[in-house]
Amino acid sequence: MSDFVEYFRNIQEKNDVHGSRRLIHSCPELMECIQHVGFLPLLESGIVGYSAEALMAEECRFTQFPDGSWEWPLWQWKGPVVTEGNCVYGKFFANKAGFVSREWWPDLLNWRRSQTPTPEEGTIEDVILMTLREQGSMITRELRAACDFTGPKMRSRFDNYVGRLQMACYIVTEDFVYPTDKHGREYGFGWSLLTTPEHLLGAEACQCERTPEESYQRMFTHLTHLLPEATEKQIRRILK
């Protein structure tokens, strides 16, 4: 039996009183899950059952009400998980968002940056990173304006650059910022507050004593054991 199956079987036994087939009922349980699995996509990952969304109890899934309002505990937990959960969040899994525990972060960064070296001086990616390093952290639209991506159709182009830098572990999400209505109440899906991992975690937490190839093999072995029903291709896609 894999670690993944055993871990969640134990959780299910604790939660049987809820009468739910799903497994995570609270933000602390999600934090615990991330620490156990190391790598956890937020939404659908291409591997059945392997995402935070797939592991949510029914009462924690997205619900839309007749007046158009909605409730989605998983989405609302992202901020506390990022700021308190001892993990890193960003678009790390085939350009989709997810969590990486701090234990595994140095290996992922080590491997990904070996595949995408530091952007050359003067390139758009370099300008984005330099701007973030100077400012510390910025929401996406502020970063886009600071990098002069304000013309027609510039938003999607800019988001592609930022997405590639996240996949290469040069940019992460520090927190989420929400607009407020006239009563001071937060609303909407929020904006990612972007920063560099060195600024968020410190340079030492971004160092790895292994070679990139050793880091990759370590992660591959871990996920193979964690997800025995996943194919080699699926696991390599997660780590690519």
Account of the protein in words:
- Helices cover 45% and strands 14% of the residues.
- The chain has 240 residues and is of the alpha+beta class.
- A three-stranded antiparallel beta sheet has the order 1-5-4, with helices on both faces. A three-stranded antiparallel beta sheet has the order 6-8-7.
- A hairpin with a 5-residue loop joins strand 2 (63-64) and strand 3.
- Helix 2 (27-37) crosses helix 3 (73-84) and helix 9 crosses helix 10.
- It is globular.
- Residues 15-21 have low confidence and may be disordered.
Number of strands: 8
Radius of gyration: 19 Å
Helix-strand category: alpha+beta
Strand residues, percent: 5-15%
Q: Bin the helical content.
A: 40-55%
- Rounded to the nearest angstrom, the distance between the terminal CA atoms is 26 Å
Strand order across the biggest sheet? 1-5-4
The main β sheet shows up as: 3 strands, antiparallel
Keywords:
single chain, 240 residues, alpha+beta, three-stranded antiparallel sheet, 45% helix
Gist of the model:
This protein has 240 residues and is of the alpha+beta class.
